[in-house]
Amino acid sequence: MNVATLNQASQQEAAQLLRQCCTSEKWISRLLQARPFADAQGLAAAADKAWRDLAEIDYLEAFDGHPKIGDVNSLKAKYANTKALAGGEQSAVDTASDEVLAALAEGNRAYDDKFGFIFIVFATGKSAAEMLELLQARLPNDRDTEMRNAAEEQRKIFQLRLETLL
């Protein structure tokens, strides 16, 4: 696919393509309104602009589109519609030791209990152990700080997915 194809797609088709990159409906709506895009850089800039200043509920909606890091069942269920774009993002978890996976699962529970949303991390290129270190480093944060951290990680993720989409 290319930018021209995205520009020419129906609202419904374009929304479905964008939903593979981020599940915030407000973000999708803003991007649909921003069409047509001149090129990939224009799409990337519009995606960032659409992401800025969303309400917390919109960020949470985007976070909800992610599986928990290391949760294979969650990966299968939540990524059914984004498998082509997101499948390799957590591939390092596949080779992790049982000990690291157990620590990730426990860390995810603690994170969700504390912040009310799952741990979001730009996982591409990171080992399971690195993701565990990041999770543990972010656990002491306050909720506002962590909401900003998670939103920035989500932004990196949708940018990679948009790049992959094209």
From TrEMBL:
Any Gene Ontology biological process: purine nucleobase metabolic process
Entry's EC annotation: 4.1.1.97
InterPro entries: OHCU_decarboxylase, OHCU_decarboxylase-2, OHCU_decarboxylase_sf
Pathway membership: Purine metabolism; urate degradation; (S)-allantoin from urate: step 3/3
Keywords assigned: Decarboxylase, Lyase, Purine metabolism
One Pfam family it belongs to: OHCU_decarbox
GO molecular function ontology, one term from the record: 2-oxo-4-hydroxy-4-carboxy-5-ureidoimidazoline decarboxylase activity
Ranges of residues in domain Oxo-4-hydroxy-4-carboxy-5-ureidoimidazoline decarboxylase: 7-163
Record field: catalytic activity: 5-hydroxy-2-oxo-4-ureido-2,5-dihydro-1H-imidazole-5-carboxylate + H(+) = (S)-allantoin + CO2
PANTHER family, A to Z: 2-OXO-4-HYDROXY-4-CARBOXY-5-UREIDOIMIDAZOLINE DECARBOXYLASE-RELATED (PTHR43466)
The protein's name: 2-oxo-4-hydroxy-4-carboxy-5-ureidoimidazoline decarboxylase
